[in-house]
Each structure stands twice: as structure tokens, then as C-alpha cells.
Amino acid sequence: MIHSYIDIMISIYMGLSNQVGRQSAIQEKGQERNIVLIMDDIVKYNRVTELGEVVKYHSKLMSYYGFDPKSGKWDSKLFPVTQNDAQLEGIQKDIERYNNALRDYNKYAEHLAKELQIDIYEEMKKGHSIVFRPP
Known about the structure:
The structure is a single chain. By secondary structure, the chain is α+β, with helices and mostly antiparallel strands. It is built from 3 helices and 6 strands; from the N terminus they run βββαββααβ. A hairpin with a 4-residue loop joins strand 4 and strand 5.
């Protein structure tokens, strides 16, 4: 199970105020600070959005099993009691699909961040969210 993952928000922010350079901007609202990456390539943007949607879908499913994707913790009280081995295997496959989707998203987001020269880990330690925007 992956407990340490990059929690990158994918959102489209309208009304971007302070742009810095061509590829990124910083937007602040109160205490919240977002690093906004404006993608030059719509194909890359579509890919990261698609991967994010897959993770979001599987996250909802995992929450039914008692897993909190934001904290990475399980609530064993919510985990379903299975009636047979087939049900348990189905849950195991769902967990595996979630882990694979998350791993694919993280790898691609790291690739994009390196390409755009953003240190994701350092920004996440500071509590900043990374937001991808279309061209």
C-alpha cells in the first residue's frame, strides 16, 4: 500500500492574477498558496488531467473500503466483511488498481515538474499545492 504519495491537486483556476514568466504563476488566497503550472502542450495537460481523474475515481472506491486517500490511513471498521474468496479478490484488485493509478499519476506529475523545473517535494513540504492549467 502506498502511504507516502504526492497529493497534487488538479484544478482549473479562473482569474489567474500574478503571472511569473511563461510557465508558472503563484496564486495566494489567505494562507493557501498554489503553484500554477501553465502547460504549453495540450496533450500533456490532457494526460495529467486524465490520470488525475482515474486516481479520483479509484479514491472514491477506496473510501468505501475505509481508506482515507488524503491521510493514507485505514479505518478497519469500514472495511467490508466478505462472504467468499471472490469478493476478497475483487477488493484486492481494486486496491491494486488504485495503487497503479496513483503510481502512474505520480510518475507523470514528477516528470512534468522536472521538465518545468519545479521541486514538487519541497513545495509540498511548504504546504503548497501544484495546479496544472491548460495552454
